[in-house]
Specification:
This protein is an alpha/beta fold. It is built from eight helices and seven strands; from the N terminus they run H-H-E-E-H-H-H-E-H-E-E-E-E-H-H. The chain has one domain. Strands 1, 2, 3, 4, 5, 6 and 7 form a seven-stranded mixed beta sheet that branches.
Length: about 250
């Protein structure tokens, strides 16, 4: 019995370990060698997240957490019913922004209608769709939607995402960063995303803050503008970090 508990704890500790521990910037050699960037499908949950944390539930126990999860899912469904096409619109806008910015920076961008893993496999199998691609820009959106850190804080739009530029030939990570776009960094639990750092980008406008869920839902159409704005800033953040520079890479402190 003790051995089982110990094994279970070990698995929990391994699962909680961060997979992204530091921001990796492109060096000069990488900037010169990468000409063609492949953009696979963006990894994201199927629903916009509408979430409010309540510290009391953590004290009460598992049953209260289950109630919170059910309430959270109900809010997601309600919000999605009001904006059924919003998530796809934001993803399309984000892809378009990334491609436009990268091309302005001198890269050739290939739009890939496949997952990141399918693209890697396709490169090894000489799939013509991935032919000539030097690196893949993998984007994993961990959380996207409206978030409230407690019942006393407003819902605000934001996104937490991981972006990795990975070479196709040797699968080496050429650049990597974690972004918190819009959320109050005091409210974001990075451990839950299996990362231990994030570059915070403060973009949220007070006009897109909503004091409670009822207010957010009553202004669902208007609030869509906040998420579209976050998607545009997220695209600019990712592509901007891959900018080619003659004098080396300098990270702008945010």
């Amino acid at each position: 019995m003790i051995m089982r508990l110990a094994a279970g704890l070990l698995l929990m500790m391994q699962g909680a370990c961060a997979t992204h521990t530091s921001h990796l910037t492109m060096d000069r050699n990488t900037q010169k060698s990468v000409r063609v960037i492949g953009l696979p499908q963006i990894q994201v949950n199927k629903q916009i997240d509408i979430r409010q944390e309540n510290p009391v539930y953590a004290i009460i126990g598992i049953s209260a957490k289950m109630v919170q999860q059910l309430a959270r899912q109900a809010k997601r469904i309600q919000y999605q019913d009001e904006n059924p096409a919003l998530l796809q619109q934001c993803l399309n806008q984000m892809r378009a922004g990334i491609k436009q910015r990268l091309r302005k920076q001198g890269y050739i961008v290939k739009d890939l209608d496949m997952t990141y893993w399918q693209a890697l496999s396709g490169y090894r199998k000489n799939d013509k769709r991935v032919e000539g691609v030097d690196a893949l820009l993998r984007i994993d959106i961990k959380q996207f939607g409206y978030f409230s850190g407690s019942p006393f804080k407003p819902y605000r739009p934001g996104m937490v995402m991981v972006a990795d530029l990975v070479s196709t030939d040797d699968r080496k990570t050429l650049a990597s960063n974690v972004y918190n776009v819009g959320f109050d960094r005091e409210d974001v639990s990075l451990l839950s995303f299996r990362v231990d750092y994030a570059t915070s980008v403060y973009v949220a406008d007070d006009q897109y803050f909503y004091k409670n869920f009822d207010t957010l839902l009553s202004k669902a159409k208007q609030s869509a503008g906040g998420l579209k704005f976050v998607a545009r800033v997220a695209a600019e953040s990712v592509a901007g970090d891959l900018k080619k520079r003659d004098n080396g890479y300098l990270m702008v402190k945010r």
